[in-house]
Specification:
Length: about 375
């Protein structure tokens, strides 16, 4: 029993072919949109790659770029096929191509769905990459003269000012690392020397943050040093430091930023998948209805179209049997030790024990 059969007249078949021709050209545009979204996401990740650890974050934009290019090619071909199928006689030129084209379009549509799901499932991987990347960037904040790390201070400062954040999880992360270079420390001061000696690793740790952590909306000048010391500042209580510093961590800010981008792209790709699925369904109906026209031999007759000629279970069983027989076709009989000639019958008949009979004396030449 066919799955979702539909009866088509000659007019309906022609109209379906014309509509699919238009939809395939619209699908070319959606392919360009997918390609553009992939490029946009790739650039956004590249802009802050110094703040991310090495991971497979580029897999999603690469997937969107590849799917976008394939969409342009496969839908361009689909537009040509649907345009020719308006005339049932021209369908003969595409008859052998239609089924492989539909199979390729099915896997392409499936890849679009995979791309949408990847956009929604990237949150955990992105969070881990940002956590490790920001930790390393803060650790090398002071190394402005080290090759490969010269611009990390500028990158982190711009990040904290642009996203109004401070530290990895919060501003107290700066208390646990030395973010001031040793060349800016006055070793003649006893306080500096004692602080360096008091730390096991010989680092200059303090309860201070870079200037980029300052909240520009603060009603008083920003307090960046001795944040937890109330007596060091006039009319100050460190329990109210949110008036001076950004309280949100940069990991949370970046994660929210990229998550919003990924969800927006994922929703767009999901809409494109539904559109491509409708085009695939229409092409399948067009193919099956035109093949039934060829069977009847009358281009003006009515014909049935369907998604599957048999039920899902019967189709799956028949395809499994085809694959099973294909596997047996190339299988070598291991019971015969792999000799393909072991079962071949001989056309020569010898005597007992397969020994050729000796010639009689009458048959010997004189």
């Amino acid at each position: 029993m066919a799955v979702l059969p539909v009866r088509f007249t000659k007019t309906k078949r022609d109209r379906l072919a014309q509509v699919l021709w238009v939809l395939n050209w619209i699908s070319v545009v959606t392919g360009i949109i997918l390609f553009s979204l992939g490029i946009f996401l790739k650039v956004e990740i590249y802009k802050r790659q110094d703040l991310m650890s090495e991971s497979q974050l580029q897999s999603v934009p690469n997937m969107l770029i590849a799917v976008g290019l394939i969409a342009c090619a496969i839908n361009f071909l689909g537009g040509k096929i649907c345009y020719d199928c308006v005339d049932s006689n021209k369908f003969l030129h595409w008859k052998l191509v239609m089924l492989p084209y539909i199979i390729c379009m099915f896997f392409f549509t499936l890849s679009v769905l995979v791309g949408a799901l990847m956009c929604y499932s990237m949150h955990g991987q992105l969070e881990e990459s940002l956590t490790l990347g920001l930790r390393d960037a803060m650790r090398y904040y002071k190394d402005t003269d080290t090759p490969g790390r010269c611009f990390l201070k500028r990158t982190v400062d711009l990040l904290q000012m642009q996203f109004q954040c401070c530290g990895n999880e919060g501003f107290r992360d700066w208390f646990q690392i030395q973010w001031v270079s040793n060349r800016y420390l006055d070793m003649s001061q006893r306080e500096v020397v004692d602080r360096l000696r008091s730390n096991v690793e010989g680092k200059y740790l303090m309860d201070g943050v870079p200037f980029s952590c300052c909240n520009v909306n603060s009603p008083r000048p920003c307090i960046m040093h001795q944040i937890s010391n109330n007596s060091a500042h006039f009319n100050y209580d460190h329990q109210m430091e949110e008036l001076n510093l950004w309280m949100r961590g940069c990991r949370q800010a970046l994660l929210q930023y990229y998550t919003n981008i990924m969800h927006s792209i994922g929703f767009t790709v999901l809409i494109i998948w539904l559109f491509e699925l409708s085009v695939l369904t229409g092409v399948r109906y067009l193919q099956t209805s035109l093949e039934n026209v060829l069977r009847q031999g009358d281009p003006e007759c009515e014909s049935d179209g369907w998604l599957l000629e048999n039920s899902f279970v019967e189709t799956a069983r028949s395809n499994f049997n085809i694959i099973k027989h294909l596997g047996k076709f190339n299988q070598i009989n291991t019971a015969s030790n792999g000799d393909p000639n072991i079962d071949r019958t001989s056309t020569t008949h010898y005597g007992p024990d397969n020994v050729p009979p000796k010639p009689h004396s009458a048959d010997r030449p004189e």
